[in-house]
Specification:
The protein is built from no helices and twelve strands. The chain has about 120 residues and is mainly beta. Strand 7 and strand 8 form a beta hairpin.
């Protein structure tokens, strides 16, 4: 059974940093592109960042560029999202996603409230 489990969320002040982790099991991790998405209260889920299977390519939403960094450790079946200079508008539930061709898996999410 495939599981993606996010961790590292929690209340943080504006200007602060957090590092989210997503541990994967039940799949061949290195065969999946990985991504982070978020959903703010009352809004649709949106793309944040993605990383290719071997980590040689990354992409970011404009809102994340220059502040967030996605990385992965295929030996640990884990993808990370380092978030710096957090803003109140970054407040959301952050979800991990695994993609391979037509197969997609989601984690349950971790909450990141950013106080002003």
């Amino acid at each position: 059974q495939v599981q993606l489990v996010e961790s590292g969320g929690g209340l943080v002040q504006a200007g602060g940093s957090l590092r989210l982790s997503c541990a994967a099991s039940g799949l061949t991790f290195g065969s999946y592109d990985m991504g982070w998405y978020r959903q703010a209260p009352g809004k649709e889920r949106e793309f944040v960042a993605a990383i290719s299977r071997i980590g040689d390519s990354t992409s970011y939403a404009d809102s994340a560029k220059g502040r967030f960094t996605i990385s992965r450790d295929n030996a640990k079946n884990t993808v990370y999202l380092q978030m710096n200079s957090l803003k109140p508008e970054d407040t959301a539930i952050y979800y991990c996603r695994a993609d391979r061709t037509i197969t997609t898996y989601w984690g349950p999410g971790t909450q990141v409230p950013v106080s002003s």
